[in-house]
Amino acid sequence: MNLRLSDEQQFLREAAAGALSRVKTFEAAREAIEDRSALPDLWPMATEAGWLGLMVGEEQGGAGLGPYDAMLVAQEAGKVLAGVPLLGALPAAKLLELAGSDKTEAVATGELKAVWLPVCPPSSVEPRWTVQPIEGMGRPDAPAATVDGDTVSFKGTVAWAPDAGEADLLVVVGIDANGEPVAATVDADADGVTIESGWRYDATRRLATVTLDGATGTKLNLEPIRMARAWYLVQSLIAAESVGTMETALEVCLDYAKQRYTFGRAIGSYQAIKHGIVEILRRLENSKSLCIYAGFAFTDKLDEIPYAASCARSVAGAGLDFTARQQIAVHGGIGATWEHDAPLTFRRAQLNRRLVGGHGMCTDRVADELLNGRGPVVSVG
Predict the structure, then answer these.
(1) Three-state SS string across the chain, please?
(2) What are the backbone dihedrals phi and psi of residue 263, each rounded to the nearest 5 degrees, phi first?
(3) Domain 226-371, CATH homologous superfamily name and number
(4) What residues contact residue 355 under an 8 Å CB cut-off, 6+ apart?
(5) What gap in Å lies between CA 127 and CA 74, rounded to an integer?
(6) Are residues 129 and 119 in contact, defined by beta-carbon separation less than 8 angstroms?
(7) Average pLDDT along the chain, 381 residues, taken 10 residues at a time
(8) Any idea where the domains of the chain sit in the sequence?
(9) Are 107 and 92 in contact (CB under 8 A)?
């Protein structure tokens, strides 16, 4: 198997890095902790770069690329802690295309801002379609859906949805009277829709809690497995973002460990520092490999998507958590001050631990897939 990036994929990464380099995202992240208005609106950049339609066919105004290509863009965004609206917009655009919606092209070209509201598919660990709680650990049921022909009305709340506060159109998944999932598009300004923007700890993430109180929309003809894959796509995107953030942190740690001297020696020569940096590298390489596996599953091993995406999110999430802590440790006192970017990396890591189900849920999903014989069998020895 050739794991090298194609010329087109390499160009996509370089173009994404170039576009993101024009925005001082680290500086904005620091300012946004005190003033949320300092956070740049990256929707125009995403539109100009064509990222919103990355996974939509060219005939619908998109780029006709796949999930792994989208993960490459997410990785570049993660390197600079950029709050690019990929987590809400990409699954929304793909679901609209799969359903044959007449809004697909407007979403792919950025004319219409669409966001998918995160709903977690069931497993043997949690045999319900659930959403993120506003607070606490217990996950509420997905919104209740009432279907009347091509019209669906929803009642329920979806908390901490990425980018929902800036959306024009919501792609909602709810549960009908028979316990089956149903998807529909709902205008963000429709009657019965309340969107409360907010943030938690990491100011680079635009989050919102969406309350649907009888809000009606247009039904999307989607199979449950299509709706479920949107969840796993976002897990893969978060994993790829985490890889990018780990890459930047590793580079910063290496530079500092070579330049900072104490007792006449570079601090990188001390075991406590060098072993920590090597552990970052080990976790980073594992995470990269699993992101490749997740991208491969989306195109060639569809039955392994839940396992592959959950593995990538679980390992990359834990890796970023370790990396953020180690970055502070390598830099000593300055690493815990606002003069350095390390606390921003730490904030991103801590929110990632909980965002869209969190990597703990993905670890549970990996165990579920393996113990129930759905994950791939690995031969040892």
Answers:
(1) CCCCCCHHHHHHHHHHHHHHCCCCHHHHHHHHCCCHHHCCCCHHHHHHHCHHHCCCCHHHCCCCCCHHHHHHHHHHHHHCCCCCCHHHHHHHHHHHHHCCCCCHHHHHCCCCCEEECCCECCCCCCCCCECCCCCCCCCCECCEEEEECCEEEEEEEEEEEECHHHCCEEEEEEECCCCCEEEEEEECCCCCEEEEEECCCCCCCCEEEEEEEEEEEEEECCCHHHHHHHHHHHHHHHHHHHHHHHHHHHHHHHHHHHHCEECCEEHHHCHHHHHHHHHHHHHHHHHHHHHHHHHHHHHHCHHHHHHHHHHHHHHHHHHHHHHHHHHHHHHHHHHHCCCCCHHHHHHHHHHHCCHHHHHHHHHHHHHHHHHCCCCCCCCCC
(2) 55, 35
(3) Butyryl-CoA Dehydrogenase, subunit A, domain 3 (1.20.140.10)
(4) 160, 162, 205, 238
(5) 30
(6) yes
(7) 84 96 89 81 94 96 96 98 95 98 96 97 91 91 97 97 96 96 98 91 91 98 97 98 98 93 86 94 97 96 95 97 96 83 94 92 90 63 35
(8) 7-113, 117-222, 226-371
(9) yes
**CA dist., res. 281 & res. 108, Å (int):** 36
pLDDT at 32: 82
- pLDDT score at 240: 98
Token duo for residue 235 = 């897990």
User: How far apart (Å, rounded) are the C-alpha atoms in residues 284 and 253?
Assistant: 14
Q: CB neighbours (10 Å) of residue 278?
A: 10
The closest alpha carbon to 74, from 91, 96, 97, belongs to: 91
- CA-closest candidate to residue 217, choices 172, 177, 162: 172
Give yes or no on whether 117-222 and 226-371 have one common fold.
no
118, two tokens:
């995160």
Question: CB neighbours (10 Å) of residue 190?
Answer: 15
> What is the predicted pLDDT for the residue at 38?
77
Q: Is CATH 2.40.110.10 the right assignment for the domain spanning 117-222?
A: yes
The residue type found at 355 is L
Could you tell me which of 274, 258, 278 has the C-alpha nearest to residue 266?
258
- Class of CATH domain 7-113: mainly alpha
